[in-house]
Amino acid sequence: MTGKSSTVLIVGAASDIGRALAREYAKAGASLILAARRVERLAPDAEDLKLRHGTTVRLAECDLLDLAGHERFLDTLGEPPDIALCVVGLLGQQQAAEADAAAADLIMRSNYNAPALLLNAVAARMERRGSGHIVGISSVAGDRGRASNYVYGSAKAGFTAFLSGLRNRLAGKGVAVLTVKPGFVDTRMTEGMALPPLLTAKPIEVAQAVRRAQERGRDVLYVRPIWRVIMLVIRLLPEGLFKRMRI
Amino acid sequence: MRLAGWGNYPRIETRCLRARDSAETLAAIAANSSLIARGNGRAYGDAALNRQATLSMLPSDRVLAFDEATGRLTCQAGILLSDIIDLFLPRGWFVPVTPGTKFVTLGGMIAADVHGKNHHGAGSFGDHVESLDLALADGRVLRCSRRENPALFDATRGGMGLTGVILAATIPLIPVETAFIRQETLPADNLAATMDLFEASQGWTYSVAWIDCLAGGASLGRSLLYRGEHALRRDLRAQFSGDPLHPIAKRNHRIPIDFPAMALNRWTVRAFNEIYYRRARPGRALIDCDSFFYPLDAILEWNRIYGRAGFLQYQCVLPKPASLAGMTALLQRIAASGKGSFLAVLKLMGRQDGLLSFPLEGYTLALDFPADGQAFGLLNELDAIVADHGGRLYLAKDARGSAAMLRRGYPRLDEFRAIRHGVDPGGRFSSLQSQRLDL
Ligand SMILES: Cc1cc2nc3c(=O)[nH]c(=O)nc-3n(C[C@H](O)[C@H](O)[C@H](O)COP(=O)(O)OP(=O)(O)OC[C@H]3O[C@@H](n4cnc5c(N)ncnc54)[C@H](O)[C@@H]3O)c2cc1C
Ligand SMILES: NC(=O)c1ccc[n+]([C@@H]2O[C@H](COP(=O)([O-])OP(=O)(O)OC[C@H]3O[C@@H](n4cnc5c(N)ncnc54)[C@H](OP(=O)(O)O)[C@@H]3O)[C@@H](O)[C@H]2O)c1
Predict the structure, then answer these.
(1) Is A243 helix (H, G, I), strand (E, B) or coil?
(2) What is the mean pLDDT of chain B?
(3) Inter-residue contact A18 to A59 (CB < 8 Å)
(4) What CATH number does residue A19 fall under?
(5) Closest to A44 (Cβ–Cβ): which among B59, B62, B83?
(6) Ligand 2 residue neighbourhood (C-beta within 6 Å)
(7) What are the backbone angles phi and psi of residue A36, rounded to the nearest 5°?
(8) CA B396, CA B376: separation in Å to the nearest integer?
(9) B235-246, pLDDT tens digit by residue?
(10) Partner of B321 at 20 to 30 A CA spacing, among A85, A157, B148, B293?
C-alpha cells in the first residue's frame, strides 16, 4: 500500500538503515515523517528526498527512551501513518554491559522497552483505524543468546517476541506486523568490524527487502536468505554443545 | 580492509572511513595525519588509496539544490553520476560532460577533471563546474570558483584529491529533448583514415573510435568511429512512441567470478576484436543514452574478467601534429607484443589548460593489459614513445608510471605543487599515486 498517498513514519531515521529506508520509500512515492533525536540534523536529508523524488517530508523530534513522551509524540503526528518503521537500536559494548548494570540497562531499554512500547502505542491507533503496517528492525542476535553479545541479543529476543505477539493479536484486524532480522549490515553500528562479505548486506539492500516484504504482508524477513539457514542450525545445536562453542 | 582501484592493481590494506556529511569529513581530516578522499573507486590505479586512511565519500550524496528553470544543480560530492542521470534525465536534463561509465561520483569527476566523447567541443568536466566547497587540511571549508579562490579552484579540478576534500559542487545541467542519441557508425580501414574521420566529425557533439589494435600492416589502426547527437523529439520514429525521456530499462549482466587469467590470452582477444569489427553495422541508428555512453556498464564488474592479478589501463594523449606518427608507433609496438587490449579507444581532444588536467589538443588512446610481468615492461616501452612525441599519461588510469615521465608530460606540475603546498604544507592529503609520482 505504498501508493502516492501513503505516509511512512521512520523512527531512528538518522541511522544508515533509516536513511536507506527513507530513500526507498520516497522513490516509491510515499510521503515521509522522519523521526530522530536532534532531528534538525536531518534537514539536508529531507531536502534531498524532496528534490530527488518530489515527495513531502516532515521532521519530528523523538527520544524513544522518554517512554512517557510516546503518546505525545504520536499525537503531534496527527492521523497515524499508514506504515510505521522502527529502526532504533543500540549495539553497545558487551563487556562494559557485563560489568556495569547501567550500561546493560541502556542497551536493554534501547532495544526492547523503548521500541516495543512505541510500536505498541502505534498499534493501538492503527487497530482503532482498522489498517496499517508495523515494521520492527530486530536482529538475528535475538535468535539465540551468545557470549559475544547476549545483552543486546536478549533485548532483541524480547523485541522479536513482542512483535510476534503483536502480529498474532492484530491478525484479522487489518494491521500487519513485519519482524526484520537483517543479519550483518554494513553501517555505523558495525564500522571497523571485519564482517564476511557474503553475509553482509548494504543498507539499501535491507531497505529494498523491507519494502518488498512489507508490501507483500510478510511476517518475518531475513534479509539475506542464508541467515535463515544459519540461525536454524544455531538454534538446533544442543545446549550442552552450544555452551562450549565460541561463535 | 583490502582495497584497490578498478583495475584491482595494486590492492592494499587500508583503513576505510566513511563521510556521511561535512562534519564527518572534517572529523576524519582532523583525526588522520595522512588520508585521501575516495569516490566510487573507478580510477583504475592507486589514485584513491592511502595506507593510513581512505575516506569514502559515497554516503555524502545528497542533492542540495536544483533550479528547474536553469538546470543548475548542487549536490554533495559523493553522489553518483548514475543517480544524477536517473533523477534528472526523465525531467529533460543531462550532464554537460560524461565519462564512459556512470558509476563515478561528482567529486571523482572533478578531481580527475574527466573528459567525454564531446571534449573537442565541450571541454572537460571541470570547465563546467561553477563552484565547489573544499575542506582543507587545517579544517577550513572554502568556496572555490573562478572568482573566489581561483587558484585553488584550478588546482582542485584535476588535482586528484590532493588539495582537500570536495564536499559539494554546483554544475549546470544541459537541456535535452529525449534520452536518445542519433548515432552514425563509420568504418575506417587504417589509422590515417580514422583521423580523417575525426576531423570530418568536428561538427558533431560526440565522437569516439574503437580501434582493433591487433590489426597490423596496412590495416594498422582500423576502427569503427561512432559519432552522435542528442536526438530531438522529431528524430524519434514510430517505434519510440512512449515517453522520449524514458527509454526501456535494460537488464545488467554481472561477471560472476574472477576469470582465470588464462581466459584472456591473445587468441581470445583477437577473436573478440575480430567479432567486434565484423559485427558492427555501419550506418545510422537511434540508441538510448546508456548504450551510447556506457556500453561497459551493462556488464557489471567486468573488471573481474582479468582475474585476481588485476589489469593495467594505459591512456595517453599526443599533441595533434605528432599523433599519426606517435600512434602508429604505439599500435605497432602493441600489435607486435600480441598482448593486445580487450578495449582500445581512440578520441580526438580539444584544447585544455589545467594544471594536472589530462586533455591536450590531439589524440588520446586507451587500452588495457593484464597486470603481469610482461605488461610492465611493454608499458615502459610505450612510455618512451609517448614521451618522445610530447605526450602524457592520464592519472585516473595510472598505477605504474614514473615521476620523471609525469614531470615531462605536465609542464605546470610545479604550479600545482606550489598551490597544494600553500594549503597543505604538511602533505596531509596524499595517495599511493601522489607518493609514487611525487605530485
Ligand atoms: C569503464 C570506465 C570508463 C571510464 N571512462 C572515462 C572517460 O571516458 N573519461 C574520463 O575522463 N575518465 C574515464 N574513466 C575514469 C573515471 O571517470 C575517473 O577515474 C573518475 O575519477 C572516477 O570517479 P570515482 O568517483 O570513482 O573516483 P575514485 O576513483 O574513487 O577517485 C579518483 C580520484 O578522485 C579523488 N576524489 C574522489 N572523490 C573526491 C572528493 N570528494 N574530493 C576530493 N577528491 C576526490 C580521489 O582522491 C582520486 O584521486 C573511466 C573509468 C572506467 C572504470
Ligand atoms: N548493522 C547491523 O549489522 C545490524 C544487524 C542487525 C540489526 N541491526 C539493527 O538495525 C537498526 C539500525 O541500526 P544501524 O545498523 O543502521 O546502526 P545505527 O546507525 O547505530 O542505528 C541505530 C539508530 O538508533 C537510534 N537510536 C538509539 N537510541 C535511540 C533513542 N533512544 N531514541 C531515538 N533513536 C535512538 C540512533 O540514533 P542516534 O543517531 O541519535 O544515536 C541510531 O540512528 C538497529 O535496530 C540495529 O539493532 C543492525
Answers:
(1) coil
(2) 91
(3) no
(4) 3.40.50.720
(5) B62
(6) A 12, 14-18, 36-37, 63-65, 87-90, 110, 114, 137, 139, 182, 184-185, 187-190
(7) -165, 170
(8) 18
(9) 887 556 678 888
(10) B293
Which helix (H) or strand (E) segment holds residue B364: the answer is: strand B362-370
Q: What is the pTM of this model?
A: 0.94
Domains: count for chain A = 1
Rounded-to-integer distance, Cα B185 and Cα B330, Å: 25
In this complex, the residue of B1, B20, B64 whose CB is nearest that of residue A47 is B64
Does residue A48 sit at the B interface (CB-CB below 8 Å)?
yes
Whether B434 is in a domain gets the answer: no
Range of the domain at A79: 7-243
List the catalytic residues of A.
152
B31 touches chain A (CB under 8 A): no
Q: Is the pLDDT of residue B417 over 50?
A: yes
Residue tagged 532483541 (cell numbers): A156
A193–B contact, CB cutoff 8 A: no
Same domain as B172, residue B185: no
Nearest Cα to B174, choosing from B256, B72, B260?
Answer: B72
Do B402 and B275 lie in one domain? The reply is: yes
Q: Which of B14-18, B343-347, B435-439 has the lowest mean pLDDT?
A: B343-347
Cα–Cα distance measured from residue B50 to residue B432, given in angstroms and rounded to the nearest whole number? 6
Residue B21 to chain A, least CA–CA distance (Å): 9
Contacts of B226 (CB under 8 A, 6+ apart): B117, B183, B184, B185, B206, B207, B208, B209, B210, B292
Q: What is the CATH number of the domain that holds B165?
A: 3.30.465.10
Beta-carbon contacts of residue B275 (< 8 Å; ≥ 6 apart) = none
What is the C-alpha radius of gyration for chain A, rounded to an integer number of angstroms? 18
pLDDT of residue B261: 45
The burial of B381, by beta-carbon neighbours within 10 Å (0-12 exposed, 13-18 middle, 19 or more buried), is given as middle
Q: Is the CB of B28 under 6 A from ligand 1?
A: no
- Please determine, for residue B259, whether its predicted confidence score (pLDDT) is greater than 50: no
Cell 538454534 sits on residue: A235
Which residues, 6+ apart, have CB-to-CB distance to B438 below 8 Å? B403, B406, B407
Q: Cell 564531446, residue? A: B118
Cell of B313: 589501463
Supply the range of the domain harboring residue B41.
Answer: 2-56
Whether the pLDDT of residue B63 is over 60: the answer is yes
Residue B343 pLDDT > 80, yes or no? no
**Inter-residue contact B84 to B95 (CB < 8 Å):** yes
Q: If you ran DSSP here, which 8-state letter would residue B352 be given?
A: -
Answer yes or no: are the C-beta atoms of A121 and A74 closer than 8 Å.
Answer: yes
What number is the ipTM of this complex? 0.92
| Residues B186, B192, B197, B198, Cα dihedral to 10° | 120
Residue B127 confidence class, pLDDT cut points 50, 70, 90: very high
What pLDDT shows up at residue B336?
86
